[in-house]
Amino acid sequence: MKSIKKIINSLWNGSGGLLSLLAGGDTCLCCGRHAIMAPLCKECQQERLFRWTGREERCSCCGRELVSEIGLCTTCRNQPLLTHTDGVLPIHSYRLWKKDLLFSWKTAGMRQLSPVFAQLMADFLRKELPELADEPLVPVPPRKGKVRRQGWDQVQELCSYLHTNHGFQVMPLLERKTVEQQKKLDRKSRLENLGQAYCVDKKRLSRITLPKSVILVDDILTTGVTLETCARALKEAGVERVVGCTLFYVI
Question: How much is the pTM?
Answer without folding.
Answer: 0.85
